[in-house]
What does this fold into?
Amino acid sequence: MGYPYSHASEVSIISKHFGDPDARTLEGWKKRGGYEGLQKALQMGPEEVIELVKDSGLRGRGGAGFPTGLKWSFMPKDSKKPHYLLCNADESEPGTFKDRELLRWAPHQLIEGCAIGAYAIGAEQIYIYCRGEFFEANQVLAKAVEDAYEAGILGQDVFGSGKRIELTVHAGAGAYICGEETGLMNSLEGRRGEPRIKPPFPAAAGLFGLPTTINNVETLSAIPHIVAKGSDWYRKWGTEDSPGTKLFCVSGHVRRPGNYELPLGFPLKELINEVCGGVVDGNALKAVIPGGSSVPILSADQVEDCLLSYEGVQEAGSMLGCASVIVMDETTDVVHQVMRMSSFYAHESCGQCTPCREGTAWVTNILKKLLAGKGTEEDLTTLMELTDQMTGTTICVLSDSVAAPVQSSIKYFREDYQKLIKGGEVNG
Amino acid sequence: MKAPKFNPGWAGNIGEYELTEAEIRGEDFVGERPLEGGHPSASATYPYMLETKDPKAKLFEGAYLERFEKIVTRYPEMRAALLPTLSLAQEVRGYVSPQTMDEVAELLELSSAYVRGVATFYTMYNKSPVGKYLIQVCTNISCNLCGAEDVLRTFLEETGTELGEISGDGCFSVVEAECLAGCGFPTCVQINSKYFENVIAEDVPEILATLRNEQSTDPRKKSLKE
Ligand SMILES: Cc1cc2nc3c(=O)[nH]c(=O)nc-3n(C[C@H](O)[C@H](O)[C@H](O)COP(=O)(O)O)c2cc1C
Ligand code: SF4
Ligand code: FES
It folds into this structure.
């Protein structure tokens, strides 16, 4: 159920017990069908579990949408080296606030998903890399992990199966880039959280140089349900290419912001107008960022027919990312907001690649200059060229994330930029 | 309808579940986390535990030594314990000075230069002392759209400080934060380990007054000397 509001259109699977304090306890969770998925998985072979997840069509919820079962199948099968499962709980993409709710309301769901994942890929050690700022989520998780150890759900002999699965909660220390998978690995190893050059990919050489799979909190939280109820059941919702449900984090100028669990393929317009009660103060819609701050901005026209599936949002001209829908009404100063995003990326760039380190700072400077009314038409050309050079030229895609909002805003909201150049104010 | 200041919890607060703030935040559920950290896999930092920070405290002794020793067992190499150890040091001392970094380096058998390189990469390590309450106001996009810059300005005015400085009474430091993952509850403000959500500029005086009057009645808040 949605948090903090709920809506009749929702299909509650992973968010079913949000707001129910009893569901956080081990006993309460078991009463609600918890750990049945793990027990069932232990009866199956690891290969079988991977096949099941493949069939369900579950795609990674951390942003890239990579098929989870396929990712698991990349792990070497006959290697004697230890394997790791990493859970990415470093949620820090502006506009995204779903993982924190999953951590604080359904810690056992995540532990169960992690344990199933570890069993499937042959890992004995799981690390949950929890964002450092989440002290509260961290404590809830710590308590749940302790209870799970006590009950023999984690440890040397999981549910008496003879399997060993250890789980450690590791807190970060504040750096957006540690959400990038290889940056996260470096950070967990006690290094600067700088992304690594790929290949080698994590499945070959990841954490501590050993085979590693990394998944988002939401991805792993869906696993117990898929294993317990089957892939056909999960495919009842969503589209052929984007099956299942997804938590949509809606923020900005809507009446009822919050998390809503909806089937993938849900119309964006209906999400804004029906589920979230429409734009505030009856204002007109100006723009929507459908997938967190690093995807292209959609204009109100593009929102009309946009369906919220991985392929649907792509057709509309953007990306679903982590389904963080940021809504902006007619009073919004788009250039200011783009500047706010680019200064975030300038702050968070790890500094390894020149196009990113220098580019993010320059883009921010030019945008600030424009906002101060000192810009020229030429600056827009410079912005386009600069962001072109920042795309596809760096180790990770943080650099591309700056290009997306800048280029799309110049494309669809050129007027706003031009008003600044002519010295006029945007929106009065 | 004016949104409530603390996390509204859950729609259930208007119906199914009657939750207190402590229940929503998990405090009641988690109970008292042991000072020595509990299970090694779950030993984290609990920055609220110490009422007073002591920049001269030893690294580490007593319960903190136990916690440090547990942290080290969790990884196949010592280096990986660096971030949690720095966090633990900050929990005790309030900030991570160059000297603290050197001490941590020695504990983990790493070079000082290496530890300094890592520590400066992360924003959560305070490199210099901060006020008793570190107020972090998110001004990123979702909060920004809903008036975060007004909230930040009001915090600065009401505490009479400049961005990043400590107020005259040593009580407050106000800084700008990047997205705190509470975007649906703008403006999101983190004060020490606690989130304040749906904050509007008008709420600021009341929040500050509450903090100023906050007595150390919370039984979990311990002094290092005890
Ligand atoms: C700059 C950057 C930041 C990222 N931040 C996060 C994050 O905070 N949380 C997350 O789950 N994934 C994040 N990702 C995506 C991860 O790299 C990775 O794709 C994901 O954790 C894989 O999990 P999934 O397959 O379950 O989606 C980020 C990627 C990049 C390039
Ligand atoms: S693109 Fe930016 S953040 Fe990513 S590795 Fe390069 S410098 Fe670091
Ligand atoms: S934008 Fe403020 S918490 Fe995310």
Summary: The longest strand of chain B covers residues 133-138.
